[in-house]
């Protein structure tokens, strides 16, 4: 049994007695006589995995209050190998997850994110790390993704029998490619490169998946978990994503963005010239591209109805989002 094998590996590597192991997605809840732990597995190459746990340790050692300490093995290591994966053990937190439908949670998230970015500064990349790197790459990444949307079009046209999703997606491609080109143009006309030259000197990193379910409210703190997508990049990447996650699905309004920006900026200052960069990042049709990747390249078996519903939500939201992005681009910090 899988759980028994995991239990055995844990007891061989940590000075704990395990009563039960419960698998929950890509983690294991480890139940012991007097405490509980979380064993997090990651199926990356060692260099990438080592970068992730090194970033987590950097935050903890820098006294980031949202950190959960990694528990050392009997051999004084930060990780173990298990089932062709690497894994680390942390204390289990009985908590509620964040809720981006709740304005108080959103403001708290902005505060924690700003503190995370400040505490990430001074991170040293070593030779045995293989990190994701986003510095200076947004323009090229957006161009590549625009070309991938055009590849989805070719795949649709090459089909003898087209699905309902194919027809829905195909009819929107031209408009979304124009939106992508507009985002690229706006990024090029911003001070993106100059800002990256300034930000890269801080040697910081981004969480890169600051979703509500990666925030644990417990012990009168907010713990940040799941650094699997951690990336070396400007903090504006995470900040733009938080605004996007908080306001999508019909909640686009400049007042909501203002609250997030003001809270974040009260801890980690947002400069005037950075606003157009955030706006351009949000303008790119990332969700339209992503559902195409999932359907045409990754071929996830989620069913036609799932993809149709997902695409419908994206299309219903896009005009309000575009109007919001136009407003945000002209927004003046403190104005």
UniProtKB/TrEMBL annotation:
Domain annotation Aminoglycoside phosphotransferase: ranges: 55-243
Keywords of this entry: Capsid protein, Virion
A cellular component term, taken from the record's GO annotations: endospore-forming forespore
Gene3D superfamilies cross-referenced by the UniProt entry: 3.90.1200.10, Phosphorylase Kinase, domain 1
UniProt keyword annotation of Transmembrane helix present: no
Protein name (Swiss-Prot/TrEMBL): Spore coat protein, CotS family
Organismal lineage: Bacteria, Bacillati, Bacillota, Clostridia, Eubacteriales
